[in-house]
Amino acid sequence: DFSTSDATLESQAVDGATTFVMVTSPGCGTCTITKPKLDALAANRPTARVVYADVGLNAKGRINFQAPVMKRYDIHATPWFMVIGPDGTVTFKGRGDEPKLWEQLGFEIH
Questions:
Q1: 53, 59, 105 from 81: Cα distances, Å
Q2: How far is it, in rounded angstroms, from Cα 22 to Cα 11?
Q3: Left if phi > 0, otherwise alpha if psi is -120 to 50, otherwise beta: which for 43?
Q4: Do 26 and 54 form a contact (C-beta atoms < 8 A)?
Q5: CA geometry: angle at 53 spanning 39 and 28, to 5°?
Q6: pTM here?
Q7: In degrees to the nearest 10, what's the CA dihedral of 87, 36, 7, 28?
Q8: How far is the C-alpha of 94 from the C-alpha of 101, rounded, in Å?
Q9: How far apart are CA 21 and CA 51, in angstroms?
């Protein structure tokens, strides 16, 4: 639970695997659409792992921007992604609308 956890996203990396971390929040439509694509990616690539970091909602029912992970990485919207290579090197971090992310994931950009 990343709504209160102080864990880093880098700590979610799996040794020897490319780890795709997606920061999500309840009610995020893009997150809902993207999750099955990432799950399929992990299912088809034995060296890929997907981690979902849900930040939850605040008392007003909005994205919890006070979650430690949101503050640590200066995240202003969900979904937000981090890709960690098999050697632990962060190769991407940012929003999901960046073509570089989808190229790393192996999806064609049209």
A1: 10, 25, 11
A2: 14
A3: alpha
A4: yes
A5: 75
A6: 0.85
A7: 140
A8: 8
A9: 5
Burial label, 61 (beta-carbon count in 10 A; 0-12, 13-18, 19+): exposed
Q: What is the structure's pLDDT at 69?
A: 92
Q: Quickly list H helices, 25-105.
A: 29-44, 68-72, 99-105
* The pLDDT value given to residue 75: 94
Residue with tokens 């790393």: 104
How many residues are present in the chain? 110
pLDDT score at 37: 85
Residue 41 identity (one-letter amino acid): L
Tokens representing 74 are 């200066």
- Per-residue pLDDT tens digits for 23-39: 999 999 989 988 998 89
Secondary structure tally for the chain: helices H, strands E = 3, 4
| Among the listed residues 28, 23, 24, 40, the one whose alpha carbon sits nearest the alpha carbon of residue 83 | 23
